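Why do we bother with holo predictions? Because pocket geometry can differ from the apo form. Keep that in mind while you read this record for thiamine diphosphate.
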Amino acid sequence: MSNPTAPYPALADAIRALAMDAVQQANSGHPGAPMGMAEIAQALWINHLRHNPNDPAWANRDRFVLSNGHGSMLIYALLHLTGYDLPIEELKNFRQLHSKTPGHPEVGITPGVETTTGPLGQGLGNAVGMALAEALLAAEFNKPGHTIVDHHTYAFTGDGCLMEGISHEVCSLAGTLKLSKLVVLYDDNGISIDGHVEHWFADDTAKRFEGYGWNVIRGVDGHDVAAVDAAIKAARGQSEKPTLIVCRTVIGKGAPNMAGTHNVHGAPLGKDEIAATRAALGWSAEPFQIPQPVYDGWDARKAGAAAQAEWQSAFDAYAEQYPELAAEFRRRMKGELPAGYAAQFQAFLEATAQKAETAATRKASQFAIAALAQALPELLGGSADLTGSNYTDWKGVAAVRAGDGKGLQFGRHINYGVREFGMAAIMNGIALHGGYLPFGGTFLTFSDYSRNAIRMAALMKQRVVHVFTHDSIGLGEDGPTHQSIEHASSLRLIPNLSVWRPCDTAETAVAWNAAVTRPASIGMDVHDGGPTALLLSRQNLPYVERDAATLQAISRGGYVLRDAEGARAVIIATGSEVSIALDAQAQLAKEGIAVRVVSMPSTDVFDRQDAGWKRAVLPPGLPRVAVEAGVTAFWHKYVGLEGAVVGIDRYGESAPAGTLFKFFGLTADKVAETVKQVL
Ligand SMILES: Cc1ncc(C[n+]2csc(CCOP(=O)(O)OP(=O)(O)O)c2C)c(N)n1
Ligand SMILES: [Mg+2]
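The structure, written out:
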């Protein structure tokens, strides 16, 4: 890793050739960014990036995020050239079904890809989360003379990521927290899809990042490997601020007629331009053929193995002196829960049932958090400036704060600021890094702000928990801007996202347990898990007494809460509407109409139960009425076209909660009346 320019331009040109040839072969893709960032990639990957192609899961590797994910051929070329398990056949199969080279990088499919990128801006958020996780783990695990957590997080970004609002959210927080091991390399090529960005993106980006408190290295020639190398060295040489390296580049560099135009952004160069590029570069090798000296120049296996071995012996020495911490570090980086967790949770659940408290489910969530935080040191909370409303903190928890140039001040609560989308993307980065189980809060209505990052967590099967409080008109006077109507139903449509809307302290405890016991997916170790959204009430909800079997049944997602002899109908309810359903049941009983009440805190968990369970809870043929303070359409999946839904298909109103429940007809009277209509 010494001479940054040897063996000459051929190293960077190998990326150019692979990118243009793979895009041509697929007849789709984005050659411009890989060709324009080839020297930047060379400077970083050959001279600085500490990684081991033979062990992409090495805990202390540097993290690399290609935030401008459309340039996927750049990372595929890098992984192939440096010796990852990504043979040339996979590059020939770029963008084809079940290849390891999908259109945009996807974690879990390609060894060495750390996160799924493509939705612009979010990769930066993931990188901030990774850098934050590293800094927290360092503060938590490193000991004097034993630095076992010590790596950088590097991200590539284009104009697109920096135009996206989320880049402001996450980079502002990264600056505030002084995440000095985060280094972002900006492909400042002046081009995005529509053409020259000066007409829609004329920011002084360097000034903007200086304003965030970043270390900005501007005016770097992005095609001069030595210049980029020097900038990265400077970034690594300081420990005060995150660094942005502004690299002036030419998109599609090397293509004689198309470089510098938006035509190379996202389309094949075409046979003639590829031939002209080969001639201009002096690249005579056939498509997908890389001269051995070029492979040798890129090969990172030896250096990577040596770096990892050096770290391993440091870790072994650490393990000798601090065996428990070392075991804990290994456990945490695997995403496994501690032995004995299940018993601790069961004890908490039984104590919760014993107390039988009336509480808002957001408060019940805080009870659960307090218990889980004891059992799970990996639990890392936060809120987007609503800590006192979301109840996402717990007694005695310290807040994460910027350090004094010697790393972060450790804490387990992150004040994300008013940055919902940024928070969600950062949580994804934390989860992807490993070592922590992140959760964060905001109002349910603002889940829309976070939505694509929730989707990305679901796509990546990441174990993160969203605490969404103030989940309905039940929040009252703040009015329709704050009252969720469509959110519960719409979140339920996201595959792999588990959604819980609990009705009391017991269901809230079970929901939290379900969230944290979903398996973690780390790198190539992918499990069928995913994120969880907890939809919680602002207002108090009564505790519902249950026998032991019913208490255990909550974990099935939908269960018979109160049966009735000879039930003629089923009322299905969630969250704050469960008590309304129970009142309706009592009212109907007086009129001689027996009905069953099913609580359905999680429809997706219920859907995964065996057919026998589902039939037992919702017997075929019994008419059904669903009750939820939100849009009705979703519930027809459970009540059928013959059943009825009591809900709200319009926006809310500003008034006290009690007034609103009456105004919108979310009452026992209305539910009882509706049951009679379906009989
Ligand atoms: C959130 C989001 N919006 C839109 C797109 C579609 N898109 C892909 S690349 C791109 C332009 C990116 O410009 P830049 O980052 O400068 O890339 P370059 O053309 O320089 O490679 C757009 C709009 C996207 N991938 N994600
Ligand atoms: Mg650009």
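Residues 1-6 have pLDDT under 50 and may be disordered.
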